[in-house]
Design brief:
It is a single chain. The N and C termini lie far apart (40 Å). The strands form 3 sheets. A two-stranded parallel sheet has the order 1-4. Strands 2-3 form a two-stranded antiparallel ribbon. Helix content is 44%, strand content 11%.
């Protein structure tokens, strides 16, 4: 793709920065959504559904992050949070913070990126959603909103000013619908 070392790309879980992807095998807990989720993706998808819905539990129990995502897509009519809405963005911000608070290696890895730009590379899936959460490389330029990368960079900036995840954890709150 690009040899620009000033950019961190999130592509696949097994890649060097794959731990920043929502599909990485880093469990997160949120009792407002049913407890332990195997991945950030599963929790993020579950938060799109009403608080005590069966759909949330089915997503939580999904065998893989992709299965959780597909279950959410199949249940789109039951969603109470519109994909790519302000609430959806807040949900993602919350989920990423939970991931950092729970996993020291994620926090340390994120801090090790210093001030490099973080991009979720969606070059292989240039859909509306892909170009919202990520960006695609075209003619050596990145196009897309890259909201996942933006949220990671915001979180990194917060951590750079206060590396105390305990205080960060106390500030975590979500308007769960």
């Amino acid at each position: 793709m690009t040899s620009d070392n000033s950019i961190i790309t999130i592509r696949r879980v097994r890649d060097p920065f794959g731990y920043l992807g929502n599909m990485s095998p880093h469990p997160v807990s949120y009792h407002g959504a049913g407890g332990e989720f195997a991945t950030a993706e599963a929790l993020f998808q579950a938060l799109r559904f009403p608080r005590d819905s069966q759909t949330r539990e089915e997503i939580r129990m999904a065998r893989s992050p992709m299965a959780a995502k597909m279950h959410a897509k199949q249940s789109i009519a039951l969603m109470c949070v519109v994909p790519r809405s302000v609430q959806d963005l807040e949900n993602m911000r919350f989920v990423l913070a939970l991931k950092v608070v729970r996993h020291a290696e994620i926090k340390n890895g994120l801090l090790s990126t210093c001030d490099r730009r973080i991009v979720e590379d969606c070059s292989a899936r240039q859909t509306e959603s892909g170009l919202y959460w990520g960006a695609a490389l075209r003619d050596r330029e990145w196009f897309g909103q890259n909201m996942l990368g933006v949220l990671w960079m915001e979180l990194r900036a917060r951590l750079q000013t206060t590396q105390d995840v305990t205080s960060m954890q106390e500030q975590l709150c979500l308007k769960d619908v």
